Amino acid sequence: MDGTETAGRVPQDAEGRAPAEGRALFVYGTLMFPEVLRALLGRVPDSAPAEVAGWRAARLPGRVYPVLVPAPEGTARGLLITGLTAAEWRVLDEYEGPMYELRPVELTDARRGWAYVSADPAAASAEDWDAGRFVAEHLDAYLGECAGWRAEDGPAP
Predict the structure, then answer these.
(1) What is the DSSP letter of 10?
(2) 66 with 58: CB under 8 angstroms?
(3) β-bridge pairing 112-118 and 25-27
(4) Among the listed residues 127, 122, 104, 106, the one whose alpha carbon sits nearest the alpha carbon of residue 114
(5) First and final CA of the chain: distance in angstroms?
(6) Is the distance from CB of 131 to CB of 32 less than 8 angstroms?
(7) pTM, whole model, 2 decimals?
(8) Taking phi first (over 0 means left), then psi (-120 to 50 degrees means alpha), and beta for anything else, what does residue 8 get?
């Protein structure tokens, strides 16, 4: 990070303009699924496997999606998404909402990116989130919810 970026919402450039294009986003939950990205963004951006040490994707009671919480011995596995436009950052920022804070992270391979982390880690379950269970039990309905949110509440592209 260049020192001008702070925890909060969408990454900003040195002049404080938000969002900044060209920043990478580490995703660890529902945004790992191409179908979800397509429902929210209308496309699937480039991505590569990635891991962040010191964090875990935790189950969130009563929700089908996870939160990223500190875990000194943990490693969160996911994807590093690149090539997001300013408009796509705005969509994702609104989609994630106040439950998450956007923070810079360093990946295990020394790449850097941003991640939406839990604004309230105490709300997370002691259990890790299960991506396979999400696909088997919730993905189809979740895609409908994403499309509905995008059509009714999401920011204009």
Answers:
(1) S
(2) yes
(3) parallel
(4) 104
(5) 27
(6) yes
(7) 0.86
(8) left
Chain position carrying tokens 């990205």: 37
Residues 8, 3, 115, 156: is their CA dihedral positive or negative? positive
Q: Is residue 79 within 8 Å of 139, Cβ to Cβ?
A: no
% helix, strand, coil for the chain, step of 5: 30, 30, 35
Residue whose pair of structure tokens reads 């963004």 in the numeric block:
41
Q: Which positions are catalytic?
A: 96
Query: Are residues 115 and 25 in contact, defined by beta-carbon separation less than 8 angstroms?
Result: yes
User: Do 130 and 15 touch, CB atoms closer than 8 A?
Assistant: no
Q: How confident is the model at residue 139 (pLDDT cuts 50, 70, 90)?
A: very high
pLDDT per residue as tens digits for the range 83-110: 998 889 889 988 998 899 989 999 999 9
